[in-house]
Design brief:
Length: 362
């Protein structure tokens, strides 16, 4: 079988070998429930607490980390567990927008802020929208489709001036882009930073306690359910590696970004070039049939948008929100890379994408 060049890091990242090694004992020989009082249970709990501290090390100072099944649960908990009106942005992940829509059907006031062609929200418009009655402002730190870094710190200031809480979806930015210290709630996911799937976390500032989403044993102080020491341990090691490898990862990603853009002359980058995490290249080519491109390049894994919306038949709501036409949105692809992407493999894949696209649009 032909090896696949993986360029879909926004959908999920390869599991770090160190994270796998940390997980294996809890899958093979150490099976105790971390909420049990006996010796084996206490050992499992200790592993969970080590992981919790490691995840917290990349969060704002203070507060607490509650483990969840992933960022979708964390975001649902944060949004549904708070009150007052909601202000969010048109380019947010479906886990935010769909939950906000459900809250609107229950009677909560909702404002969806538009973005400019660069993918950034207008801060004057945001300040005007975040006022009396607002209880929660929700914004993604790094957009999962176009990689744009949103002005979360400014939005947090507006939220606090209105007496509201600031929720940051840091799934794509955690460990890569600093999370503003003024956030009140932060959602993250392990599998976006070389950890395992099936575990995430919600960081809560001291004094912030959303109403429970899940009821039961209240194991996480507002979140019920037995934790997996294996998943938590893998998450913790992955988070620690994000600190240890931060500078090397950033330099590697910046180099790959430059090579990718240089290898696609004539393509248009979607969203801001400057306010952008460099591990994301979302580009479009006029007249490109993306489905045909994917069919022609089955051994290159890339995306036409969010993995969560694939198969829906809809073009990207993010690309439409930045002003692209339906045709432009459907002629766009997303390339994501990072720590384990080899430079030579990327250059070869980019060359093949460029040549295949040129043949399709000739």
């Amino acid at each position: 079988m032909t090896p696949v060049t993986y360029l879909d890091y926004q959908a999920t990242t390869p599991l770090a070998p160190e994270a796998l090694a940390a997980m294996l004992p809890w899958l093979e020989t150490q099976h105790a429930n971390p909420h049990s009082p006996h010796r084996e249970g206490r050992a499992a709990k200790a592993a969970v607490e080590v992981a919790r501290d490691r995840v917290a090390a990349l969060m704002p100072v203070g507060g607490r980390v509650a483990f969840t099944s992933g960022a979708t649960e964390a975001l649902n908990w944060a949004i549904r567990g708070t009150g007052g009106g909601i202000v969010t942005i048109a380019t947010e992940h479906a886990a935010v927008l769909d939950t906000v829509a459900a809250e609107a059907r229950r009677g909560r006031a909702v404002t969806i802020l538009p973005v400019g062609h660069d993918g950034l929200v207008d801060l004057d418009a945001a300040r005007a929208a975040i006022g009396p009655g607002t209880g929660l402002v929700a914004a993604m730190l790094v957009n999962n489709e176009i990689g744009v870094i949103q002005s979360v710190a400014a939005l947090a200031d507006f939220a606090h001036a209105a007496g509201a809480l600031m929720l940051c979806d840091a799934v794509q930015g955690y460990g890569r882009v600093p999370i503003p210290d003024t956030c009140d709630i932060v959602a993250v996911s392990a599998h976006k930073l070389h950890g395992p799937k099936g575990v995430g976390a919600l960081w809560l500032r001291d004094g912030v306690s959303p109403e429970p989403l899940l009821y039961g044993g209240d194991q996480e102080g507002g979140r019920s359910g037995t934790l997996s020491p294996a998943l938590c341990a893998g998450f913790g090691v992955a988070a620690a590696l994000m600190i240890e490898r931060r500078d090397a990862d950033a330099a590697h990603v910046a180099r790959l970004f430059a090579l990718a853009v240089a290898g696609l002359p004539g393509w248009q980058v979607n969203g801001s070039i400057d306010a952008r995490y460099r591990g994301n290249v979302n580009v479009r080519h006029e007249g490109l049939d993306v489905n045909r491109l994917m069919s022609d390049l089955r051994d290159v894994a890339f995306s036409a948008g969010s993995a969560c919306a694939s198969g829906s038949g809809r073009s990207s709501h993010v690309l439409r929100a930045i002003g692209l036409s339906e045709a432009e949105a459907r002629s766009s692809i997303r390339l994501g890379f990072g720590r384990y992407t080899e430079e030579t493999a990327l250059v070869a894949a980019i060359d093949r994408i460029a040549r295949a696209a040129a043949a399709i649009t000739a």
